[in-house]
Amino acid sequence: MTASSNLTQVTYYRIYADSQGESHLDVVTVEQRLAQGAPPAAPFYISEDRAASKYRFYTFEPGWIGELHPAPTRQFLALMSGGVEVKTTDGTVHQFGPGDLVLLEDTSGKGHVTRNIGDGYATFFVVPVPIP
């Protein structure tokens, strides 16, 4: 996160499918503004509201591989523990660790490959989000 006197930015990864069904990895930046979010607590940085209505957890066993598959729904995944590697069909390979946030939007097309690259379990906090 980058901070200045009145603006911060939060970044996350985005995996999406193009019109030919190929998947890609991108980085998205969300702006925040200093605001009174929980009075009487001191102001803190807040982004605009976005829709979400439920959450779940995904846990992958050591050695787990999710062969080429599209995302089951548009969803944010926050990696809580472990390490995973994601490969998109454009050949990009990226490793994610605890604290990384990913928006999966490749709900159609060829999808991506996910694998648990750690020695232990990998656990995600997952929030399905509607298509804008």
UniProtKB/TrEMBL annotation:
Pfam families: Cupin_2
InterPro entries recorded: Cupin_2, RmlC-like_jellyroll, RmlC_Cupin_sf
Domain Cupin type-2: 57-127
Top-level taxonomic group: Archaea
Protein's recorded name: Cupin domain-containing protein
Higher taxonomy: Archaea, Methanobacteriati, Methanobacteriota, Stenosarchaea group, Methanomicrobia
